[in-house]
Amino acid sequence: MPRQTHPGLAREGWPFITAAAVAGVVAWFINPEWSAPFVVLVIVFAMKFRDPSREVPPEPLGVVSPVDGIVELVETTQDPCLGRNAMRIRIRIARFGAYSARAPVEGKLLDFKGQRGMRIQTDEKDDVILILNEAPAFARPRALVGYGSRVGQGQRCAVVRMARIAEVYLPAGVRVQVKPGRRVLAGSELLATLVHD
Using an 8 Å Cβ cutoff, are 167 and 43 in contact? Predict the structure, then answer.
């Protein structure tokens, strides 16, 4: 599958980086020592808003990680959104991971009926739920696609902002390919494979 083409830095980060850089230049002309904190800010913002291109694995029924982070939990549980038995994969989002969340599967984004998150239905009618949690009210994740839109596997579909946890709910019969403690990268590493006879 072709490499996903994303900018090296998320568009949302450019105002912060530009403001810090301009302030650093102004501070340099006043007193060179004053520019150091602004240089640090530019570096921090560049890390926080990085949006690298990722190679999506050629697995049509694969479920890719939506975020950079570490798998904390893999368990069979009740899906809080659809009320079904489901496999839940919980990922602790890396503090300086990719700023964008990627779609775990290819499919159509459906109405979520008041829940926070995304519901993507594949062409095989599998429902995959992505929820981004533990973000302060002023920096909650934001979707980049609307209901009814089609998203590709590994496509940039939301900005993580300051969310700390990503939860992916999958049909109960999936073949899981990760264990707790595994470090994963958004859009390029398989969490599971949907099973169809």
Answer: no
Give the amino acid at 126.
D
pLDDT single digits (tens) 81-135: 888 999 999 999 998 888 888 999 999 988 665 556 789 999 999 999 998 887 6
Domain range annotation of the chain: 11-48, 62-193
Task: Reply yes or no on domain 62-193 having CATH 3.30.930.10.
Answer: no
Tokens (6 digits) for 121: 């239905």
β-pair partners for 64: 190
In angstroms, the CA 178 to CA 74 distance is 8
pTM of the prediction?
A: 0.83
Structure tokens at 39: 């240089």
The residues, any chain, with a CB within 8 Å of residue 110's CB and separated by 6 or more, are 119, 120, 121, 127, 147, 148
Angle at the Cα of 12 from the Cα atoms of 9 and 14, rounded to 5 degrees: 60
The dihedral through the CA atoms of 43, 44, 47, 50 has a sign that is: negative
156-159: strand order across its sheet: 100-102, 156-159, 142-143
Helix (H) or strand (E) holding 36: helix 36-48
